[in-house]
Amino acid sequence: MAAADIVCMMTAAVGKPQAQEKGCEALAQRSASSAEGQSEVVQAGGMDAVVKALSMHTGALSLQISGVFCLEKITTSHASNTASLVKIGGIEAVIKAMSLAADKDSLQEVGCKIICNAATCNAGCQGKVVKAGAVQAVLFAMRAHAQKASVQEIGCRALKELAAYNTESQEDIYTRGGIQVVLRAMETHPDETKIQVMGCGVLRNLAACNSEQQEAVVARGGIQVVLDAMARHAANSSVQWAGCWTLFCLSVHNAEMQAEVSAYGAARSALKAMEMHRTEPRVQEAGSWLLKELAERTATSNDKATFSSAIQASLKALEKHPTNTAVQKAARAALQKLSAHDSEGWVRTVSLGRCGRLGRAATMRTLEAIQE
């Protein structure tokens, strides 16, 4: 049956929930076939019909489930359809369905997925999704289904996207206890790498340059949770990258938090990550920025081995990734900060010692960076 025919049937039986449910299921099948199928459904008015059905029949639980699943099929990997859903109030309908079927983990998962997709569509959509109550809906889903790994993963992913460059959403996540929910997800599912990566992403977006939320994450044991994830998944470059960035965001521009992160041995974790993933530029970049932020504590401690290793790691990053500007910038920043607190001139000496590997030009640029 063509999408237009399905919509006509739903319009004719607008007051009948069972007919609406069958229509949602049929539209979902049309949408799942291809991007052309998704577009056909939207052009025929299918998205509007599903949202209307959800809004009119809040007491029909099976229809609520079918409708949300249908909207997910219509919008998956389709930015314009997702933006249209936000525009017609579809996110509000999804959130309402999630509240009506709180015990249905499959619906909660799909609802979080729709919210996540809408939050990544554009800044305007992200703002509307936040105002619709998305943060509360996602956190409710995660609390209600703490043992369901798939709900925790997509929930963390949604929170990460909702918090990206949005101070209103960041504050909403924080005040509603989102930090505890994310840390609980990471602790409850320690072997799920995607939950560790996405959980770190939420913490990173909350903490970056926000001293109150940096302190909140640290006070709730966040440093240890991140370090445990890195230790457990030492061979996974994504976890190492995410962990280093999170520890950096917890300490950036905050001397008190730098002391806390350093006291947990974060510099050694960064060095291990950089050593194991020498060819991964994003690990080298994130690790270098973390070493830079912890440089003063590393240089002034009695742990000379870690200080020496930090110098070597930064120089190796420069050596292995000569054309990657992000790595070059981060590694030189780390060396510069290490040098600023180096009373014995180790940074300069080691840099000159690696001249043969770096090359004369690269060595001179490194020395110039150290002296700035």
Compact description:
With 372 residues, this protein is mainly alpha-helical. Among the domains are: 1-99 and 106-118 and 125-139 and 168-183, Leucine-rich Repeat Variant, CATH 1.25.10.10; 280-294 and 306-372, no CATH class. The protein contains 26 helices and no strands.
Give a verbal description of the structure.
- The chain is mostly helical.
- Among the domains are: 1-99 and 106-118 and 125-139 and 168-183, Leucine-rich Repeat Variant, CATH 1.25.10; 280-294 and 306-372, no CATH class.
- 80% of the residues lie in helices and 0% in strands.
- The protein has helices spanning 3-12, 17-33, 35-43, 46-56, 61-75, 79-87, 90-100, 105-119, 123-131, 134-144, 149-163, 167-175, 178-188, 193-207, 211-219, 222-232, 237-251, 255-263, 266-276, 281-293, 295-300, 304-320, 325-340, 346-353, 355-358, 360-371.
- Helix 19 runs antiparallel to helix 20 and helix 19 (266-276) runs parallel beside helix 22.
- The radius of gyration is 25 Å and the shape is elongated.
- The model has no long low-confidence stretch (mean pLDDT 93).
Q: Give the termini separation.
A: 70 Å
C-alpha Rg, in Å? 25 Å
**Morphology:** elongated
What is the CATH topology descriptor of the domain at 1-99 and 106-118 and 125-139 and 168-183?
A: Leucine-rich Repeat Variant
Helix content: over 70%
Number of strands: 0
